[in-house]
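Re: the multi-chain job from yesterday

Posting the exact lines I submitted so nobody has to dig through the queue logs.
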Amino acid sequence: MHAGHTEAALPSSPSLLDCVIIGAGAAGLTAAVYLARFRRCIAVIDGNASRLLAIPASHNYPGFADGIHGEELLSRLRRHAAHYGVRSTPGTVETLERLDDGSFIARCGKQQWHARTVILATGVTDVEPDFPDVKRAVAEGFVRYCPVCDGFEAISKKVAVIGHGKGGLAEALFVRHFADAVSLLTLDDPFDLDEKEQLRLGQAQVQAVHVPVARLAFDNAGVMQVNLDDGRRLSFDVVYVALGTLVNSGLAQVLGAQCTARGELVVDAHQESSMPGLYAAGDLVKGLNQITVAMGHAAIAATAIHNRLGRE
Ligand SMILES: Cc1cc2nc3c(=O)[nH]c(=O)nc-3n(C[C@H](O)[C@H](O)[C@H](O)COP(=O)(O)OP(=O)(O)OC[C@H]3O[C@@H](n4cnc5c(N)ncnc54)[C@H](O)[C@@H]3O)c2cc1C
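And the result, structure tokens for all chains:
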């Protein structure tokens, strides 16, 4: 879907909403279902860039042993929210303001929403290598971003990890648990590993390729090739990209909510940030980036908000 028009769930929406949900991926849509079923007045605004859209098939989302395409899961979540009258408004929230009475105003272009609470569910953005074929390679499951999600599907395969420093090392060692052969590749930065870390690579039989990758490209037969700067061409069954993520927490940071050095939201046991009334759910929260975790955060945040509003 391109989310049609929003508006709130039951009952009809007043000018002061109970909650505005920013972002409608796994976390935002789960929160929308919960809050709608709690009969709360909500609005959902979404930039339509959920990471779910990049998942060719998820095999670790419980209940779908044969796997589920990320886009299919997103459509199901949207339909579930729509069943209770919630449709997200397309757009990117540009500013979030907290008023003296503790309520919030979210603005997107000429539109604005005034709400007693906010759930920020804006996720993260994967840092992609800058090669033209990358989107196709992700869609075909050749390039992957998340070995926690699909390391199992790399069992006995020949795998490369593109990364640098400790992040690349950790991912290569993680993947080695599944794959028969793992090579650690770099885009341009030197690996920057100390002696102990190099020893760990050696012990795990991970091969570090120091010549940078020039490009990833499909050959005429549709097979993905890794071309190195020295002209060598390597082929792998799977390439994991471990270049990190950008956390979409700018709206919270402007308000002064506590974040980690990487920009992840720090929350309490109810998913509330250090800014009262501002809750966060999903990948932008410090912790494991998984669909089930995002949904769990959302369930906790929505229930905490419902209970809080009942007390006010
Ligand atoms: C290739 C790939 C494969 C994956 N495979 C799996 C898997 O098999 N199993 C698994 O558990 N996880 C998997 N993941 C991770 C999973 O997709 C995420 O954990 C999950 O989507 C997080 O949900 P979220 O709601 O936090 O963020 P998202 O689903 O990414 O949604 C965030 C939404 O917020 C919107 N947004 C951002 N900023 C704004 C703004 N200012 N205003 C309005 N909207 C905004 C975005 O447009 C987006 O729609 C995979 C990820 C990738 C990239």
